[in-house]
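Sequence in, structure out.
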Amino acid sequence: MPANNEFSIRHTTRNFPNREGSKPSDGQIASVALMDARSIAATAANGGYLTAATEIDVDYKEYKYNFDSTVYKNRVYFGYGKADTSLDLKFGPNIADWPAFESLSENIILKVCSVITDEVTTTDELIPSGETSSYRSNPYKLAEFTLSRKDPEYVKRAKAVGADSISALIERAKIDFAPAETRLGSVIYANKPGDGSAREQAASCQKVLGGVANIAREYATKRYRSNLINWGMIPFIYNGKDLPFKNGDYIFVPNIRNAIKNKDKAVKACICRGDCQSPAEIREIVLQLPELTNDERDIILAGCLINYYRK
């Protein structure tokens, strides 16, 4: 790792401070070919200062390479072709299957569970690395870390959404929704989410906690947006000047299934403040629907990519 205030050159990037172990004041991303030319061995031999292999006084020799497979034979189990089909697959104690996900309903009610007003939100802020690495095979436990560094109360809010009554919300809001055709789920807002790493858990953890959509001014990366779609969540865009909702508000989105099918570019939605005690608390907004391929629309309609493949 580079010392403080030293120059760093590498062919991969990491998106959060101090991940390299220090805080270099200057850095450069280079192609793999250039990194190879800046020989690691030559740089190490020169005390860590960037040095090309051609700039070090050394007599290069060719050595014969011999591969010794003994280490693999001693330490690796080769089980191909030896399956015992009479036995069930045993899951370790920290491995869990995915929950079943429903297809997109005709209408949706979104409860706002986190509002992030930072200019950019990284995937590492959406689902942190490090302490979560032990739970990557357990979607339920992994989801407990969602937004833990950015909004520690988010998980509790998202879990509580399931206790809300769809019928009671519709009745109080006086909105013409059929309860049987309506699904209630959580939503987060961020100005520009998904910067940096392509970890799909940044989206899947929201889904496990009942997430139905994201709302953003824009999405930082195509990969994060694609991950939302693959987990059946709608990547809404909001272009209004002010931010009309806050944590705890409900957003009623009618006929969303038809809007996705019909390739509509936007949908009208109603924001209900708090517990929607009176019609005066309802405000109409417009949510933009991004350009979606036919496959992406089918994935959202199916509820997630797993359901799409199953069909």
